[in-house]
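Bug report (template v2)

What were you trying to do?
Predict the complex of my protein with histidyl-adenosine monophosphate.

What happened?
Run completed; filing so the output is reviewed.

Input:
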Amino acid sequence: MKNKNAIQSVKGVKDILPETAPQWRRVEDSAMEIFDLYNFQEIRVPIFEKTDVFKRSIGETSDIVEKEMYTFTDRGGESLTLRPEGTAPVVRAYIEHKLYNPPGVKKLFYMGPMFRAERPQAGRFRQFHQIGAEVFGSDDPAVDAEMIIMVMDLFIELNIKSLKIKLNSLGCPNCRPSYREALYNFLKERIGSLCDLCNARIEKNPLRALDCKSPGCQAVAAEAPTIDKYWCDDCRAHLDSVRKPLLDLELPVVMDLKLARGLDYYTRTAFEVVSEKLGAQNSVAGGGRYDSLVEQFGGPPTPAMGFALGVERLISLFGESEVNEIEDDAPDIYIVTMNHEAQMKAFELSHRLRSYGYKVERGFGGGSIKSQMRKADRSQSRFTLIIGEDELAKDAATLRDMVSGEQKEAPFNELIDILDEDFGSV
Ligand code: HAM
């Protein structure tokens, strides 16, 4: 039964406990390796920003800005927001630190918590974690394709299957306005079937109705005109060049002409990686091109492309996959001490052992040899080092092999050599 007086975590916010933390490290380490192979550099941006950073980029009509931001006024009266995503802060930092100098392509990645006040449900949290990447300074469709391939490399490395890449182009300032108008006219005639929120926002951004999860809007969206008839030649060519290498590599890419994404900054390429195993919140990664955002933020005109994946959703796909089985992390050596002097000796020995790379656990709190050996057993350490009066007198510990049960004398000054030999033979 839950203790009513005990303080509990906030709804939609999760602890990552020691038993799952290794899975997180596995994802983060694999992502780092892959980013390195693709020559990306890490950027760490703050967890909160001025509210305008998000309002001006994600868009006033997006669900995030409209109803999901954790915004507060700080003591100085400034409006701040916990980051709901990473792209806007990275763009802000790119401009603030003039990362466009020297001119060229800048490839950045980031990892960390994001915050959205969504209704919590399976796969949807209020604090969740993203691993994301952004490339600035090139409008080459090869960048888009390479980023999608890079995301898929991570899934392959983690042995995650049954994925689909949904791809679309949201057009550019040349061709999107005519699609927008056609979509708006279509939606206006069906206004009674749309949800209140879409009713209020289709004038400003009719594309939002395509991304809305309410059943009425989804039914209308299913019949709505698609963007492909409105693409200009350049957008069409760009999309073809993104798609071709994905098809050549036999990646599971499908066109989804209704894919609008939940953020307003996209131009041209938009994509999502979805898994049929995830239920309603099926998108595990998403991204696209945002060629106007840097300029909109006051930077030099800079085309850009990026994506982010949700770590919680990714880990929920780990399943029984052997590749993701976490290695045994029991200590190499457990030190049992029989008196105060032995405890003091254990400081020196454990320090030395750790400096040689051995993972050492010490028994704390004393107790009989029997109870300490029980603790050593429970720790599943490979060896136990016992230090008592006799051992101190002989300047040699008793080293017990916890698998065979054999014991031997290990002189303190030869301990490392003995262990190196023993570990070499296990
Ligand atoms: P997003 O599609 O909003 O895109 O989020 C990316 C991923 O974050 C989603 O596919 C999902 O896995 C995860 N995610 C989003 N919201 C939640 C939530 N409430 N709980 C759990 N996981 C969630 C972006 O954030 C863009 N910044 C991606 C991007 C980068 N576009 C260009 N560059």
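What did the reviewer find?
The chain has two domains: 20-174+232-323, 333-417. The chain has a mean pLDDT of 95.
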